[in-house]
Design goal:
This protein has 472 residues and is of the alpha+beta class. It is 33% helix and 20% strand. A 7-stranded antiparallel sheet has the order 15-12-14-13-18-20-16, with helices on both faces. A 5-stranded antiparallel sheet has the order 5-6-10-8-9. Strands 1-2-4-3 form a 4-stranded mixed sheet. The termini are close together. Bound molecules: flavin-adenine dinucleotide.
Length: 472
């Protein structure tokens, strides 16, 4: 079936307005949150109901057409880019299907925006704990596919810890249930396999998530440091002292300056080399004592000052600055590249020093804003992607940073996934045999390899990829 015929068949299912085929309409879907990559889809289709979605996937299966699921497109590894294939937009599927406050469960469609779920269950004193900084835009389906994290995942765990069941449509059109909302499942952990599969194993039709009770009390602290080293030391000392904050985030001076110059200005000290944003939550009893212990540890590690947010307004501002930091960097340059690696926490001081040296060597500004408590680094480099020479320096710097993290005992992604951005780094940590095992696992879900082709495992390891016809 050619492209026009496919567009007509898709329109018959979802209506003409839900199928995009003009280059000018598709332009916006050529990138995700990493603007350095552009891949044009052949078509984009936006089902509005589960029935339409199922019919679309079955049509694509019959016609053996490759496709790429896409939620909000906030991914930071080029995972939702469809290169000459069909982009399957899921952001019209936005219903919270049910809330079971007693059992603290909710069933949602994949296009529900993360923070909308928390808003929907707030009247029950509940929230959805995984809170990526993109939570105002990213979808639960995208979170499942990336096994997304977020500031509060230090204490509460990542997406996988909060998803109890999934209904999935496999690329061949079969519908399967994974996991079990009523308790432990038996047999292989296929739910755990699907979470983090980056759209390569099928499409989540609905997601059953665990909800968390709102804490009785919260304390949010801002500690400011005159050296990055001291902030990193404080991070290790807090964890070593046996305190598990709800969140422990670090921002360096370049990030602070970008935030403070933007509409998200949070009152961070602009002369600080780094700040730690710390949060404690739980029972009201004892929370102020824990806050005092955090203050003492930070001061003992060299903090200049530690302040506790006085009210909800101040707390919201402090968090808004952190969560909108990537956006604030839009002021610095036209494009931004974000690295995502995870390292042992104790290696934070030397790895941060090494990253600064790499930036200096390549003549680039590296801004660090990251989940320090998890050892999950996010060095950001604002740059101009239209300048090939600068882009080449950025690429060299990013590769050197990743190698440094792997050599420090780390891994190539903390939460943003592999997508296309990190394909070349996979052999740094996985042997050919492991990569081959991943390809064979993929075959169990998608033997024709039509779902999100060319992602996650390097093509030389998974040779058959892209065999499926590409529409042009
Ligand atoms: C400013 C900013 C801050 C961020 N902060 C964080 C953070 O703190 N923590 C974090 O983990 N990430 C963060 N991210 C990255 C991103 O928001 C997450 O990876 C998020 O989970 C992506 O969701 P999405 O709906 O945008 O998915 P998309 O980008 O649309 O897609 C991501 C992947 O999921 C697949 N997919 C989407 N929906 C489905 C579905 N229903 N079924 C199967 N596969 C599907 C796609 O094929 C793709 O591979 C941030 C991004 C930005 C821009």
């Amino acid at each position: 079936m050619n492209r026009d015929a496919l567009a007509r068949s898709l329109s018959a299912i979802v209506g003409e307005r839900q199928v995009l085929h003009r280059p000018s309409e598709l332009l916006v879907y050529a990138s995700d949150g990493l603007p350095g990559y552009r891949r044009e889809p052949a078509l984009a289709v936006f089902p509005r109901t589960r029935e339409e979605l199922v019919a679309v996937v079955r049509l694509l299966a019959r016609e053996r057409v490759p496709f790429v699921p896409r939620g909000a497109g906030t991914g930071l590894s080029g995972g939702a880019l469809a290169d000459g294939s069909v982009l399957l937009g899921l952001n019209r599927l936005t219903r919270v299907l049910s809330v079971d406050a007693e059992n603290r469960l909710a069933v949602v469609e994949p296009g529900v925006v993360n923070v909308h779920l928390t808003r929907a269950v707030a009247p029950h004193g509940l929230h959805y704990a995984p809170d990526p900084s993109s939570q105002a835009a990213c979808t639960i389906g995208g979170n499942v596919a990336e096994n997304a994290g977020g500031p509060h995942c230090l204490k509460y765990g990542v997406t996988l810890n909060h998803v109890v069941a999934l209904t999935v449509i496999l690329p061949d059109g079969d519908i399967v249930s994974l996991g079990n909302a009523d308790g432990e499942d038996e047999g292989y952990d296929l739910l755990g396999t699907f979470v983090g599969s980056e759209g390569c194993f099928g499409v989540a039709l609905d997601v059953t998530v665990r909800l968390s009770p709102n804490p009785q009390a919260v304390r949010t602290l801002l500690a400011d440091f005159t050296s990055l080293d001291a902030a990193a030391r404080a991070t290790s000392s807090i964890i070593a002292a046996g305190i598990v904050p709800a969140a422990l985030e670090m921002m360096d001076q370049a990030t602070i300056l970008a935030v403070e110059a933007s509409i998200y200005a949070a009152g961070y000290p602009v002369d600080a080399a780094a700040v730690l944003l710390l949060e404690l939550d739980g029972l009201a009893d004892g929370i102020d004592e824990d806050a005092d212990r955090l203050r003492t540890i930070c001061l003992g590690s060299g903090a200049r000052s530690v302040r506790v947010a006085r009210d909800e307004g101040e707390r919201t501002r402090l968090w808004q600055g952190r969560k909108k930091a990537f956006g604030a960097m839009g002021r610095v340059s036209s494009h931004l590249v974000v690295q995502d690696a995870v390292i042992p926490r104790t290696r934070l001081p030397d790895v941060l020093r090494a990253i600064a040296l790499i930036g200096e060597r390549e003549g680039l500004t590296v801004c660090n804003v990251f989940h320090a408590g998890d050892g999950n680094l996010h060095p950001n480099i604002p740059y101009n992607a239209n300048d090939p020479e600068e882009s080449a320096r950025v690429h060299r710097a990013m590769t050197a940073i990743m190698r440094t993290c792997v050599e420090a005992g780390g891994s190539v992604t903390g939460e943003h996934g592999i997508g296309i951005d990190k394909l070349d780094y996979m052999p740094l940590i996985f042997s050919e045999a492991s990569l081959d095992a991943m390809c064979r696992l993929r075959d169990a879900f998608d033997p024709a390899r039509r779902a999100n082709p060319g992602k996650v495992v390097p093509i030389r390891s998974c040779r058959e990829w892209m065999q499926a016809p590409v529409l042009r």
